[in-house]
Every structure is written in structure tokens, then in C-alpha cells.
Amino acid sequence: MERWWPALPLAGVAAVGAYYVGRASTEKEQQDSSSHGYRLRTNLTDENAMRIAKFLAQYAPPLDFKFHKGQHGRLAVVGGSKDYTGAPYYAGMAALQAGAELVYILTAEEACIPIKSYSPELMVSPFYSAQAIAAEEKWATQCAAKVTSRLPRLHALIIGPGLGRRVEMVAVVKNIIKQAASLPKPLPIVIDADGLWMVTQAPEMVRCANVILTPNKVEFDRLWKAVCGEQKRTSPERDIQHLSKAMGGVTIIHKGPSDLISSGVTVLKCSEKGAPRRPGGIGDVLSGIVGLFVAWAEMGVRRQEAANEKNTTREAIYSEAAYCACTIVRKSWEETFLQKRRSSGVPDLLQVIGRVLNALDVPLEKLASKM
Q1: Domain named YjeF C-terminal: which ranges (predicted)?
Q2: Contact (Cβ atoms closer than 8 angstroms) between residue 340 and residue 348
Q3: Among 52, 126, 218, 242, which has the minimal tally of Cβ within 10 Å of its Cβ?
Q4: What is the pTM of this model?
Q5: Annotated binding residue at 309?
């Protein structure tokens, strides 16, 4: 039986094409479909459609046969623990669904087999054992070394999903970030979930511009107290700018009804609708896509530097990458909710991300002609 995903056209792109399962599209459909075969069920603003298309055109590696395995994105997720195995899986799979090619999960020995059983696409390795955790500097250094030995081959590092809150792990994470900061070229580091709790225990570990923090309201409040103490807060926009500056210019994504993004200079606000359901795991998905997008942004910055081209600041590009990632996740979650309603979950979201991204990955000239 032929199945079809009905959809409304994407505002500002093209009102043609449809996603078909069960038969090959005709040559004319392939030529006409500027959204690669999938149309969104709800409209995306012209501004956001253009921003995402522009970001992908400028920074995403082109789909070209000259590339070899891994050049479109090699990421590692430092996370997972004996009790939490889903979070690093969601972060890693989200990055793959958005376009990464190689994703490593570096986790507890006790979590390896469960995570491996979730997907053969993730390369899972242990860097510590929950039974051998020790509050010793030597132990922390040895554990961190199993992660830092991989850093030169990575395009981005994600720390925190499912990592747990063992205080002994703070020294491990601190060591990893210190080694990453010593690399010849900046390595984007996304810190989420339990990684943010560890930052509150030692805020000095992240005072560098290549770090991206993704706190929700509670996590933001903890960061503020750890860094700014009892200093009076004014407005969400001013608060995120102030906290970013106080932490050395890190990029902060303050998740909420609208996502606020700032590297201390300007504030971007992502107000895409999303959906009225908040199951666990959506934040992990966001951290994976942010990791990939800032990896692409860093690749673009290096290409521009190599060509001696004038470019915007690294912080501004990271903020734009974060904004586009937030938009993709919110739109994908809205599309998922429209299909599954109350039963919608993160496994469903993972199946939609690629379709939404492909629908927005259109040539700029075609997009502009429809506006």
C-alpha cells in the first residue's frame, strides 16, 4: 500500500514536492521539489527559513564525493552512567540524524553494553568504572586521559548527558576541558545536563569562548548563583549577557518558552512554537545538534582564516549555530507532535529531524525567489 506524509507547504520555500514511501518519485517530482521530498506540516517564518538555509550553505560541508568518512563531523559524547544510558544515546543519534558521520560515546563501563544495544551506529567505549571511582587526582587523570587522547581527531565534544553527579567526576571533567583548551586549534565543547552541575562546582573550568552551555531555568539559576552569587537579576536578556561575560565569553543557550542565546554581546531569541509536551530527552537531542552545528561553524571559521577572508567573530558564529539548532529542534518537535500527539516521544523526534533539516536545506537563490 502506498503511504504518504500529508503536509502544508513551507512558508517562503516551495509549495511543491511531497515525501513518498512505497514508490520512487518521478524525475519531474525530483526536479520540482526544492525541499528534497518532504514538506513541513506547519509554516516556518521566512526569516528562520532563510537563516537556516544561509547557515547550511555557508558552514555545512557540501555533499560532495571528494570527501571521505568523518569529514562531515566527528563528535564525542562524554556521558552516560550506570543509571542513565538514554541521554548519551539521544545526543549521539541526534547528531547523526542532523548530518554527523562518526559519533563516539565515552561512558561508564557499566553503561557500554546497554548503549551499544541501542544502535550499531554509535561507537561506545568506557573511560571509567563506577565500581572503581576514587577521590584521587591520579584516578581522575587516568580517566581523563582515555578521553583526551581522542580530542585531536574530533570536531566537537559534548559533555554531560547522563553523566551523573558523582563529585569525584568533577576533577575528570575539569581535566578534560583543560586538555581541550590546550589544543592548537579551538575545539567546540557543549556542556549540558549533569555537566552543568559540575560547572557549578568549579566555574573556572569553562572560561573560554569555545564553550557552549545549554541550561534550562533551574540550571541557569544554579549557574548564576555559582558565578554571580547574590547579585541582583534584572531581565532574562540582560542576565544571560551578564552571565556570559562573567564566565569569560562562553555561549549560553537558556532554554525556556523561548530560547535565549548569547555570547555576551548580543542576545538572539528563538521563539519557534515547539509542542506542549516535555518528555525527558529533548535537551539531549538539542545538545547533539548544537554540537554538530558549532563543529560546522568552527570548520567554516578555519576555512575563512586559511583564505584570509574577513569574517565575523567566532562567538557570533557560534551563537548563530546555536540559534539554528534550537530552531531545528523546536520545528522537529512540533512536526512530531502533530503526528503522534500525546504519544509523541524522543524516539519519534529522532525520526523527524532529518526530514525537517532536508526540507530547510535549500539553495539560497530558490528560497529568496519565493519570498
Answers
A1: 52-360
A2: yes
A3: 218
A4: 0.89
A5: no
